[in-house]
Amino acid sequence: MKNVKNLLGLFFISTLMFISCDTLDLDLTENPNALSPNQADAGFFLNSIQINFAFWVNSMGDRGGELTRINYMNGRTYNNVYSPDSWNGLWSSAYRGMLEDIRLMNSLADEAGLTYHRGMGKVFQAYILITLVDYFGDIPYSEALQGGEGVLNPIADSGQSVYSAAISTLDSAIADFNSGGPVPSNDYYYGGNADKWIKAANSIKKKALLNLGDFVGYNAITNYISSPTDDFQFIWGRNPATPDTRHPLYRSNYTSTGGGEYMSNWLMFNMINGHAGNSDPRINYYFYRQVDNTPGFDSAADEEVLECGLPGYYVPPQLRGDNSPFCAPTNSASKPANGYWGRDHGNDNGIPPDGFKRTLRGVYPAGGAFDDSSFAGKVDGDGFGGAGITPIMLSSWMHFMNAEVAVNNGGDPTNETLTALEQALYKTDDLGGPALTSDDVSNYIAAFTSDWNSASSLADKLDMWATEFFISLTGNGIDAYNSYRRNGFPRSLQPNIEPDPGQFPLSQYYPANYVNTNRNATQKSAKTVRVFWNTNGPTTLK
C-alpha cells in the first residue's frame, strides 16, 4: 500500500477544512474563509482540495450507502432523513469550498504552467459535478462561482449539459497529465504518477457513460483502473490530536463511550450467510464484535439495550421468522448471530446504553480493529488507529460495472463478476490484519460460483452480482445509489421497518440554503423526479 508523505502536517489548513454537513449554512456566491490568489500558490490550494475532497466523498458515500443498506439509516421515513436542510453543508462544501478552490488553483496553475496540478483539479471537479447531478439532477454550472462578476442567482443547467462538460473536463485533464508538467510534491492519491491519474480520469468517464447507457463509448475506453495497484483512494493517518488525520468512520466508532454508530444488519446478514454454506471471509475485516452474543437470539433477551425487544418494534410480516436479517443478522440456528449487533433499516428507536456491545467498523475501510474473536470493548486508539481509506474508484468496481455492461450488450457477466469478486476479496486485507489466504479466496469464489450456476434466472444472478457489488462498495456508496436506481438490483434489500416510509428518493431535494438564497432556484415537487439519465430504471424501489 502506498505511503502518503507529509499528510499529517498538511491538515493544518483549518479554514479550508471540511466542516460537518449539519453546521454549514452558506450560499454559492462568496466564501469568507476562502484563500485568494495573493494569499497562496497552487500547491497550497492543492493541499486543501485533496483533503476536503476525501471528506466530501466519504460523506456523500455515507448517504448513498444508507439508501442501499450498506450503512444503517437512522430514520423511519425518507423525507425526514433526506430533508432539504440535511444537504446544506455538502452542497456548500462542493461549491463554496472545493469548486471555488479548484477555480482559483487552476488560474494560478495556468500562469505558472503547472499542468499536473491543473489536471488533478479537473479530475476532482468532474467527479464532484457528476456526483451532484447524480444526486440532485439539474445544478448550477455555467453561472456558478461568479459572485464577483455580479451573478448572485446562478441558473441551474441541465444535468445532461453538466455531464457533457464534466466528461470534456476529464478529457482536458488527461491532456494535462500527458503534457509532462512539473509534478507536485503533495499528490496524496498517486504520489506523482500521471499514468495512474489518467486511468482514474478514464474510470470516472466510464462510470458516467454507464449511467448514460452509452455502452459503445464505455467499451471504447480501455486504459482504466483494472488492477488494484491503480486504485483511486485517499489514505488516512493515525494522528488523534489537532489536526485529526484519522478516517472519519474510525472517529465515529472508536470513542470513549464505545461504538458511535450502528452497522447495517442487512450487510452483516449477507456476509454471515455468504454462499453455499460459506461465510464471507471479509467479515472479520469489515466488522469488529465487542460481545460474543446477541440478546434475544443466542442469549437471554435484554430489552434495555436490544431495541428490537422493545414494544412497538416493527418487523415486516413477510420477514418474521428465521429467514430474516431483522434484529439478529442471521437466517438459521446453524449460523448464530454471535455478537453481530447492528440495526435494521430505518430503526429510530433512540440510543440505549449499548456503546460497548454494538458491532464496530473493522479494519476495512476505517482502519479499526481486526476481529480475532477476542470480544473486547474498543475505545479511541484501538485497532489500526484510523489509518483506513476512502475509496473513490476501485478496480473491483470497474469489473462489476463491466459485468453490467456485458448484460446490457446481451453477453455473459460471469467472468467479469468473478474477476471483480476476487479483486474485492484480496483488497480487504491491504490495511492490516492477517492476510487472506488463497484458500479463503478460492473457497468463497467456489461457493459463489456454485450458487451462481444454480440460479434459475438471469435476474437471480443479478441479485448475487449486485449484492457482491454493494459489499465491495463499503466505504463509498455513491455508485451503489446509482446502480440501484439504474436496475433495481439486488431485490433482496431489507425493507424499512416503517410500513410506509414514503417514496424512495429517485433524486434528492435541493438543499434549503440553495433554494432559499437563489431567486432562480426552484425546489423539485417530489422525490419521484428522476435525474436525466434514469429514464428506464424502476420506480418502485424499497
Q: Keywords for this structure?
A:
mainly alpha; 16 helices; two-stranded antiparallel sheet; single chain; 542 residues
SSE diagram, text form:
Elements: H1 42-67, H2 78-81, H3 88-112, H4 115-136, E1 139-140, E2 156-157, H5 159-178, H6 194-212, H7 215-220, E3 232-235, H8 248-253, H9 265-273, H10 283-286, E4 287-288, E5 360-361, E6 389-393, H11 395-408, H12 414-427, H13 438-454, H14 458-472, H15 478-487, H16 512-517
Antiparallel strand pairs: 1-2, 3-6, 4-5
Helix pairs in contact: 1-3, 1-4, 1-15, 3-4, 4-5, 4-6, 5-6, 11-12, 11-14, 12-13, 12-14
Structural features, described:
The protein has helices spanning 42-67, 78-81, 88-112, 115-136, 159-178, 194-212, 215-220, 248-253, 265-273, 283-286, 395-408, 414-427, 438-454, 458-472, 478-487, 512-517; strands spanning 139-140, 156-157, 232-235, 287-288, 360-361, 389-393. It has 542 residues and is mainly α. It has a two-stranded antiparallel ribbon. Strands 3-6 form a two-stranded antiparallel sheet. Helix 12 (414-427) packs antiparallel against helix 13. The longest helix has 26 residues, at 42-67. The protein is globular, with a radius of gyration of 23 Å. The two termini are 38 Å apart. Mean pLDDT is 89; it is low at 1-32.
